[in-house]
Amino acid sequence: MSVFGIVLFLIFGGMAFWLLLFTLGFIVPLWITLGIREKLRPKRIFEDNDEE
């Protein structure tokens, strides 16, 4: 039964490791890039509602 616990621990540890690696390698840079793009995008001051 002790071997089962060790294997289960290694499986969960591996899953957590790969999730952390994916988060730090893909999600965080994507989040930062989208945030920078949102800050640099020009704002629309006036709406185009003059066509009525």
Would you write up a description of this structure?
This protein starts with a helix and ends in a 12-residue tail after the last helix. It has 52 residues and is mainly α. 0% of the residues are buried. It is built from 1 helix and no strands. It has one helix at residues 2-40. The radius of gyration is 23 Å and the shape is rod-shaped. Helices cover 75% and strands 0% of the residues. Keywords: Membrane, Transmembrane, Transmembrane helix. The chain crosses the membrane at residues 6-34.
Distance between the termini: 77 Å
Count the E strands: 0
Mean of pLDDT: 88
Biggest β-sheet description: none
How do the SSEs run, as a string of H and E? H
Helix fraction by DSSP (H/I, runs of at least 4): over 70%
Q: In percent terms, what proportion of residues is strand?
A: under 5%
Instruction: Give the structural class.
Output: mainly alpha
Number of helices: 1
Basic shape: rod-shaped
- Low-confidence stretches at least 5 residues in length (pLDDT < 50)? none
Query: Which radius of gyration do the C-alpha atoms yield?
Result: 23 Å
Transmembrane segments: 6-34
Keywords: Membrane, Transmembrane, Transmembrane helix
Give a short overview:
This protein is mostly helical. Helix content is 75%, strand content 0%.
